[in-house]
User: What shape does this take?
Amino acid sequence: MDYRHLRVTLGSILLLIFAVLSASAQDATAELEALKKSAPKVYLDCGECDIEYIKNEISFVNYVRDRKEAQVHILVTTQHTGSGGREYTLTFLGQNEFSGIDDLVRYFSKQSDTQDDIRKGLVRSLKQGLAGYAARTPIASRLIVRAEEEARSADIRDRWDSWVFNIGGEGRFNGEESSLRNNFGFNLTANRITADWKLRIGFSSHFDKDSFTYDGEEIKSSQENYSADGLLVKSLGDHWSAGLSFAAASSTYDNTRRRFTIAPAVEFNLFPYAESTRRQLRFLYRLQWENVRYQEATIYDRTRESLWSESLSITLDLKEKWGSISTSLSGSHYFHDLKFNRINLFGFIQLNLIKGLNAHIIGGGSRIHDQLGLVKGDASLEEILLRRRQLATTYNYFVMAGLSYTFGSIYTNVVNPRFGRAGGQGMTIRID
Amino acid sequence: MKKLLTRKIFFLLAAIGFLGLGGIGRAQNTIPSNGLPLPTPKIFLTGPDTAFFQTETPFVDHVQDRTAASVLIEIAAGRDAEGAFYALEFKGVREFEGMKDSLRYRPAAGESAEDSRKGVARILKLGLMRFVNKTSTASRIDISLQASVNPTAVVDPWNFWVFSLGGNAMINGESSYQSQMWMGNLSANRVTPEWKIRLGANLHSNKSVYSYEDFDYESTSDSLSVQSLVVRSINDHWSIGATVSASSSTYNNIDFNLILKPAVEFDVFPYSESTKKQLRILYAVGPEVYRYREETIFDKKKETLWSQTLSVSLDLRQSWGSLSLSLSGSNYFHDFKKNKLSLDGGVSWRIFEGLNFNIEGGGARVRDQFSLPKGGASLEEVLLQRRQLATGYNYFFSIGLSYAFGSVNSHVVNPRFGSGGGGGFMISF
Assistant: This one.
């Protein structure tokens, strides 16, 4: 028996099996890559998603950087839920080859969810929404749908009757040899939010204490604010609501020892409230009574007063494929003297109308004729530079505008974490 | 004049707003937004082999009676110019009223009947997802690709190069205060699994005017910078690369500087797990050329220095929360006493359901401020933080604890009277 010969034969058989296996594996990879080329092109329009994680977890689509290149535009909008979590509305809009194929999926996060819980939930909802599009492309042949065993459904009876309580505290400390800045905040809320009623009660306090050293001299500066507020709203159909708000506050910035306000109000929304995550045009009218006690005598020689006023505000919020708009215009005046009035305008527009071109403009301005609480004496230079005091002004404004043009590769499939993320430049604005 | 401007702005915004309104269609698929999921779809399936397709889709309920169903599915075989196919027609009724879809499965040439049947079942499952994703069953369904695929498997005439140019402006003011800020940027990037190339230029200019007792205090700061980064992937743990940057900054008293830093990085965890965990160790060494705006406290107008930096960064994003920690040390070779050690980090930890703890902070021991100007800074520059000041350390930290209890599983959205319920969105630029 020639064992050596047998060994060689066995070895060559194994080698052959290995070669066949690896060749078929290579074929499978090459085939999958070919299928990926025709996978759905997706534009994910979501400012708060963990995009890199999503790209890693959902690899059966191609991601593009401009909405006009996409076959599926996914618009993600969020709203707060009554329990302090968020409702994510995923609107799938088919475009080009998938024109007319739309879907809508909702995902709810809880207040105590970690970033990881939220991104996992969003990925699941995104996958299920994308399944119908992937089913129309050849990559469907490589997709696996798995269902876990059904868990026993939890008891959904709510022994708290929709009440949610929250307690929070925060401290911020900041320093170097010549400057020291400390801030503390504390807040307490109790909310009960149902489709018919909205009840919010809150208390918050905030302290700032700063000190600077200049020319061997120490400059100290501090600020204190307390406030308690409440809101009760009753739903009156799809378009109307009525409510009552009250607040008690104290602020060194505003020169108020205490301010108490109570205001009944009524609101009309041109769009049904059910569409509020995508569009709302709300008109809110408030009639307000306030009682103020100042810390120091005002320029009008008052230390306390009671006043009636009214205000009207119009708010438009739109989130569409082509961009978003959020504007609000409000006006108010006191009844005892109509000269004491104020107009505020805020607007934000973000547009992507032309391939690659993104524009945004944010602006706001106020015409102010109602600074009843101004302190008689002058503010110090530190108070001005550190913005510790409300100063006499008849207006204020800000405008931010930006334009960017991007061209080149449309695909953004790659996640490359080496040497850190893009980093640094740019900024993020959150509008609530 | 001011009034006129306010009015003009208002009408412009109003016009844009209503233009927008004109272009809006009705929302489709208006499923109830009370947060309650729909009941599991009840499927009535017609066509060949229904028993097989029913066992393949156990995550939905199958009914024998058409009138009891919430989704009707018809599977039919057909043939057209391209060959044989199976057509799957989905039609929602009752709570799924108005939803319909039609999908096709086309068997490959010479495919066995068993393979075709499995192929149809796969399309059936994918087609069911748009119904299932509105029910509580959604939470136990996962869809995945059989094998991982290279993200660059696409046809791209630009070879992954992306170019961008942008500008931003910001102005604001009131009677006794005005400020303006201008920014411009240019970038060219190419990111693939093998290479990361980022080239960019930024321009930043800032000016504020404060009025106090008939005096105007003017304060400005400007900076210009050009950065580039090239990284080559070696394997799943190692990368090499280099950064080149040139900048000027009034805050730092720098008229011009050029920094060249070749570097090497090691990730203890594979890079492919970077969105869940990474522990990166980066070492960089290279020359720095400085030309100062004003003579420094060390009587220098310009100098060239060599330095090295070692940094360790840990990033974890897990189901209990997230953690990021970064420790970095650097020193200059001409004088080892010129060094800096900094630590930054943050933890967001869900201790248990309802109780969340956040801490964020950073601090540095600073022994390398050689660009400080001899002349010092004015009071306004100190208060407005317009100048780097001499310091041996700096730190910041914030700590927060919040506890929520009660009816924390409610999904109700009530947008009335805005605030706290209103839609929020985020803009990044």
The radius of gyration of chain A is 30 Å. Residues 3-37 of chain A form the longest helix (35 residues). The CA atoms of residues 199 and 232 of chain A lie 5 Å apart. Helices of chain A lie at 3-37, 51-57, 115-134, 381-385.
